[in-house]
């Protein structure tokens, strides 16, 4: 593990700090392709292990950890994105902290409900299925950071944080979201694999762009010519 | 409603499609009273810009009457408006800097995946111009859904005819910005490649901005005649060695600024252009950079290169050495229409700019496919087509 930037470092029970967790192999026609990808991951895995050990003693660059060519950190897949939103920091923090708002710009999130300490995320998965993720806030600094972690009874083991800081030159606020997750086994695992592992970075990129659209313009752009039925 | 739809390479058709609705609060619905076919549409027609799908409604130069407004639109029913082809939110970093065609928020997030890998950044939304720029249904139709209608549309007071103001939607500001990007100084010669609508408005603009002389280059006699009528000197590249002529017409110096108003579909049998045409046919995202190369070679040392002509992919044999060693500057981009339209409207109203001289054909929307075929194949006579839905 290297220690640069905001690289996510999972700790605590249930976290394996060795080796690589291969993605779940999806069903059917995609199997052959996934196996090829799997072989690629093994190769990349070996190379990255080497790189990780040399890097611990070598010179590190200033780039955020998530831009590393390695995308698995321990058993966790990590994805992160940042976006600059032309709005004041406190406003964006407040918007995000009201977790129900997240469904307004996160494409796969159907709703987020607050139950006491917990937030219950209903996430749509392929073929009409849904996955339930339960999280609780583990740390919070007003207008700066919110970090969360899934609870024991969650379908997916995930943790993440979002950071807010002033952009230079009056450009608004830099919002940086980092999410790590460990896909479980079984049916839910397969759904999760389909949901996240195809292109984990794409979803977070799109979601943050929608957040920016919503906060800057009051709406989320669409080229649909008619309202959804 | 009736709308012109893309079906395939050089195949467009007028179809009946569902009417648009208000979808977002800042939307308005416009009933189109006049719309035009642009040289940019020809790149789609020829299939050299990727990301156009069968059934897409084309058209990005249009105006009309407001028939419906969303809760946050500032337009009023029955207002007459010209709609910029660039869709811009007015609130993002770029819009605030008047870089409207670089808007961050108008291309739907799921469409931005297409251009981010291709260009390094996602493009803004444009009407009727492929899914790279949002897949927005275009203006060659009876009705258009106009997003961010509080920022884009220019309200036109009574007075000017539709035709006089229609080109505020694109080609007039495009020609104007092309000339502005030349930073014209007294005594300057500006050379303009392409006497299509964009080139013609660039010529007119450069002269208004005080260019000493404008030299226009094309091969169509009628288009060259239009350029000459505006006050340009002209070069027919089929009979004249362009680089030599430009030097001789500028006392051996070369033009101070050059404008590529042709873009990726250069005509002619220059060897580089023949090779590029072959690559373009195979469809590797290869641009035909003949005009840009020639313009860079022609430009005087320390001069300016302005590129309103559209390119979509990669260009070979870019004369980077000439560009660097001569210390040239290049400026380009889809036009920031909203930045220029109000001032240009005033100039039209005051009779400073002639906007209708280039219209050669007026057709009903139903005849749009004929308009495309001729604007494409008979460019000399068909200089600009206006469609009336
Ligand atoms: N930047 C923008 O926002 C913007 C807006 C509108 C149009 N455009 C682009 O501007 C370009 C011109 O548009 P238009 O509507 O005038 O198109 P057009 O097709 O009507 O005109 C192009 C002209 O270039 C001439 N030409 C071709 N090869 C030439 C060569 N080798 N040397 C000299 N002239 C040559 C043609 O004969 C024709 O007259 C297109 O690429 C179009 O996509 C850009
Ligand atoms: Zn155009
Ligand atoms: Zn914008």
UniProtKB/TrEMBL annotation, chain A:
<dbReference type="InterPro" id="IPR005031">
    <property type="entry name" value="COQ10_START"/>
</dbReference>
<keyword id="KW-1133">Transmembrane helix</keyword>
<feature type="transmembrane region" description="Helical">
    <location>
        <begin position="29"/>
        <end position="50"/>
    </location>
</feature>
<keyword id="KW-0812">Transmembrane</keyword>
<comment type="similarity">
    <text>Belongs to the ribosome association toxin RatA family.</text>
</comment>
<dbReference type="Pfam" id="PF03364">
    <property type="entry name" value="Polyketide_cyc"/>
</dbReference>
<dbReference type="InterPro" id="IPR047137">
    <property type="entry name" value="ORF3"/>
</dbReference>
<dbReference type="InterPro" id="IPR023393">
    <property type="entry name" value="START-like_dom_sf"/>
</dbReference>
<keyword id="KW-0472">Membrane</keyword>
<feature type="domain" description="Coenzyme Q-binding protein COQ10 START">
    <location>
        <begin position="85"/>
        <end position="199"/>
    </location>
</feature>
<protein>
    <submittedName>
        <fullName>Cyclase</fullName>
    </submittedName>
</protein>
UniProtKB/TrEMBL annotation, chain B:
<dbReference type="InterPro" id="IPR013154">
    <property type="entry name" value="ADH-like_N"/>
</dbReference>
<comment type="similarity">
    <text>Belongs to the zinc-containing alcohol dehydrogenase family.</text>
</comment>
<keyword id="KW-0862">Zinc</keyword>
<feature type="domain" description="Alcohol dehydrogenase-like N-terminal">
    <location>
        <begin position="25"/>
        <end position="152"/>
    </location>
</feature>
<dbReference type="GO" id="GO:0008270">
    <property type="term" value="F:zinc ion binding"/>
</dbReference>
<dbReference type="Pfam" id="PF08240">
    <property type="entry name" value="ADH_N"/>
</dbReference>
<protein>
    <submittedName>
        <fullName>Alcohol dehydrogenase catalytic domain-containing protein</fullName>
    </submittedName>
</protein>
<feature type="domain" description="Alcohol dehydrogenase-like C-terminal">
    <location>
        <begin position="197"/>
        <end position="265"/>
    </location>
</feature>
<keyword id="KW-0560">Oxidoreductase</keyword>
<dbReference type="InterPro" id="IPR036291">
    <property type="entry name" value="NAD(P)-bd_dom_sf"/>
</dbReference>
<dbReference type="InterPro" id="IPR013149">
    <property type="entry name" value="ADH-like_C"/>
</dbReference>
<dbReference type="InterPro" id="IPR002328">
    <property type="entry name" value="ADH_Zn_CS"/>
</dbReference>
<keyword id="KW-0479">Metal-binding</keyword>
<dbReference type="GO" id="GO:0016491">
    <property type="term" value="F:oxidoreductase activity"/>
</dbReference>
<dbReference type="Pfam" id="PF00107">
    <property type="entry name" value="ADH_zinc_N"/>
</dbReference>
<dbReference type="InterPro" id="IPR011032">
    <property type="entry name" value="GroES-like_sf"/>
</dbReference>
């Amino acid at each position: 593990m290297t220690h640069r930037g905001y690289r996510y470092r999972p700790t605590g029970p249930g976290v394996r700090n060795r080796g690589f967790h291969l993605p779940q192999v999806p069903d059917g026609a995609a199997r052959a392709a996934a196996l090829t990808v799997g072989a690629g991951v093994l190769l990349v895995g070996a190379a990255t292990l080497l790189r990780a050990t040399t890097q611990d003693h070598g010179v590190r660059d200033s780039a955020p950890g998530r831009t590393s060519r390695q995308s698995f950190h321990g058993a966790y897949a990590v994805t992160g994105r940042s976006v600059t939103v032309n709005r004041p920091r406190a406003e964006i923090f407040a918007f995000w902290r009201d977790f129900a708002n997240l469904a307004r710009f996160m494409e796969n999130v159907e709703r987020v409900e607050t139950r006491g300490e917990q937030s219950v995320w209903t996430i749509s998965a392929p073929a009409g299925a849904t996955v339930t993720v339960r999280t609780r806030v583990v740390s919070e600094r007003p207008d700066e950071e919110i970090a969360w972690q899934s609870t024991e009874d969650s379908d997916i083991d995930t943790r993440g944080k979002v950071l807010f800081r002033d952009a230079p030159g009056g450009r608004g606020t830099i919002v940086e979201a980092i999410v790590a997750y460990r896909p479980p086994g079984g049916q839910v695992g397969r759904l999760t694999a389909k949901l996240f592992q195809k292109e984990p970075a794409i979803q977070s990129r799109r979601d943050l762009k929608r957040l920016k659209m919503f906060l800057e313009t009051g709406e989320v752009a669409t080229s649909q010519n008619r309202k959804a039925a | 409603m009736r709308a012109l739809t893309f079906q395939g390479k050089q195949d467009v058709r007028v179809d009946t499609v569902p009417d648009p609705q208000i979808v977002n609060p800042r939307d308005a619905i416009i009933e189109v009273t006049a719309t035009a076919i642009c040289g940019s549409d020809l790149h789609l027609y020829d299939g050299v810009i990727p990301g156009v799908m069968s059934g897409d409604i084309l058209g990005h130069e249009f105006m009309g009457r407001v028939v419906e407004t969303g809760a946050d639109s500032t337009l009023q029913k029955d207002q007459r408006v010209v709609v910029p082809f660039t869709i811009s939110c007015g609130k993002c970093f770029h819009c605030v800097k008047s870089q409207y065609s670089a808007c961050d928020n108008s291309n739907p997030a799921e469409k931005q995946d297409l251009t981010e890998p291709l260009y390094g950044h996602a493009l803004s939304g444009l009407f009727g111009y492929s899914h790279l720029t949002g897949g927005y249904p275009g203006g060659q139709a009876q009705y258009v859904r106009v997003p961010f209608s509080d920022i884009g549309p220019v309200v036109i007071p009574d007075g000017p005819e539709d035709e006089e103001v229609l080109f505020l939607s694109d080609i007039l500001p495009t020609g104007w910005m092309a000339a502005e990007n030349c930073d014209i100084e007294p005594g300057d010669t500006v050379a303009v490649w392409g006497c299509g609508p964009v080139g013609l408005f660039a010529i007119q603009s450069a002269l208004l901005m005080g260019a000493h002389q404008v030299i226009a280059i094309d091969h169509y006699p009628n288009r060259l005649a239009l350029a000459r009528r505006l006050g340009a000197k002209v070069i027919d590249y089929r009979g004249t060695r362009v680089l030599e002529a430009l030097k001789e017409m500028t006392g051996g110096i070369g033009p101070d600024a050059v404008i590529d108003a042709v873009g990726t579909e250069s005509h002619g049998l220059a060897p580089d252009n023949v090779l590029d045409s072959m690559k373009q046919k195979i469809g590797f995202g290869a641009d035909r950079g003949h005009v840009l190369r020639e313009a860079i070679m022609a430009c005087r040392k320390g001069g300016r290169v302005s590129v309103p002509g559209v390119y979509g992919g990669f260009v070979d044999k870019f004369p980077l050495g000439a560009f660097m060693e001569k210390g040239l500057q290049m400026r380009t981009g889809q036009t920031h229409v909203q930045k220029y339209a109000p001032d240009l409207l005033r100039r039209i109203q005051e009779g400073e700019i002639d906007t209708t001289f280039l219209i050669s054909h007026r057709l009903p929307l139903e005849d749009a496919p004929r308009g495309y075929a001729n604007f494409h194949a008979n460019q000399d006579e068909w200089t600009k087509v206006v469609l009336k839905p």
